[in-house]
Amino acid sequence: MPPPSKTDHLPPSHPAHRQRPRSPNRVLAEAEAQWIFTEAELDNSPTIQDGMSIVEERETRAKGINFIASVGVMLKLPQITLATAAIYFQRYLMRGSLKKARGDMPKLHHYQIAAISLFLATKVEESSRALKEMIIAFCRVAQKNPNLLIDDQSKDYWKWKDCILIHEDVMLETLCFDLTVESPHRQLFDLLKCYGVEHNKRVRNAAWAFITDGNNTQLCLLISSRTIAVAGVYAACRSYGVALPDDEKGRPWWEAQGVRLRDVRRAMEFMEAGYEETSNKINGIIAAVVQGAGKGSGSEGERSIYVASPFVMPPADGERRASNASSIGEKRKRDDAQPGIAINGDDKAPVIGNGTVETAAQLSKRPRHEEVTNGQPPPQIELDGLGAEHDFKHEEERLRVQHGDHQAEAVQKAAHANGTLAPPSNAAKDDAEVSEEGEVEE
């Protein structure tokens, strides 16, 4: 047998330095095949048989996986340990029920199942943590308080401790003591090294995210771990336009790994459906409210004031200040000066001389000068003594500004620009001082 050739002079990226991914262990592959189900079997899990809907069951699974991830972040556990715990959690729910006890399997909360799964995964993956630290993390995540102080003699502490130690054997029996699993994350790293793309940050992160997101779904119950790893690389390379070389026989790279293309596409379609469902759930809140506002079926979202109120473009700064000076100040002045009874919190109904309150119909039929002055006739304008440059039109504009005309200030401002209008009276200046903007008009 000839001696192996020397590769010291070759760069590290040369194919001679790359290590081919190890072939899947036949024993592990056969054991993993026993936990592969069809989509029809996933829709007929024990929890669904006991009355829980498919959507609710999947949401409960996702909550359990999020519990594992939150505890893992708090305890700084490796991702492979969290992936193993997620697989235990998914497999347990294919034999146990969340609704009621089945045989020797008691009814457990999904947080309790997730905690036991993570406890076993830390032992299997040799990343153990002290039981006290894990129980404290379980209590904090379950109560959604990361700074919660837990005493080792408290009721919650012993409740979690008894649950883990008592039901650990139940978990082992339910999983048939099949605790050795092939992690898709570990196989992903071997694939990236084999094809020399482990230093491509975008491809590496995209493939890693694909597999990590798969832990939140039932993908591990549909497809083998090796197929999931290949699907992650395939999706990442396709997203960023990276082409991987074929093998020596001219076969595509996924066939060289013993994976069929239809299984890879099936995994990608399953994950794509999950991404779309999550996106629709996030965006569906706004879409449902907007769509329901047009239908008017009477749901709570359709009765919202934000849905019923049309969007109005705010006016420019100059127009807003002009309207504030004429309307807001006059309104406050009338509210303080005029007697009345409050209607709808802010508005006041004018009181007639005999002490009665006018109705909305009577208010709509009143002349404008009565509506503004609460029944009092407008003051008469004294034109005697005015200069030749002032005429009746200018005095009328001044009167409109005093009595709340929203457009008078804009006209007055234009007249000031032309230099044809005398300065306004002191009443108009007082209105500007109480402007909503807190600014005084020049």
TrEMBL record:
One of its GO terms (molecular function) is cyclin-dependent protein serine/threonine kinase regulator activity. InterPro entries: Cyclin-like_sf (IPR036915), Cyclin/Ssn8 (IPR043198), Cyclin_N (IPR006671). It comes from the Eukaryota. Residues 433-442 have a biased composition (Acidic residues). It holds the Pfam family Cyclin_N. GO terms for biological process: regulation of transcription by RNA polymerase II. Residues 1-11, 398-408 have a biased composition (Basic and acidic residues). Residues 1-25, 310-385, 398-442 are annotated as: Disordered. PANTHER family: CYCLIN. This is RNA polymerase II holoenzyme cyclin-like subunit. The lineage of its organism: Eukaryota, Fungi, Dikarya, Ascomycota, Pezizomycotina.
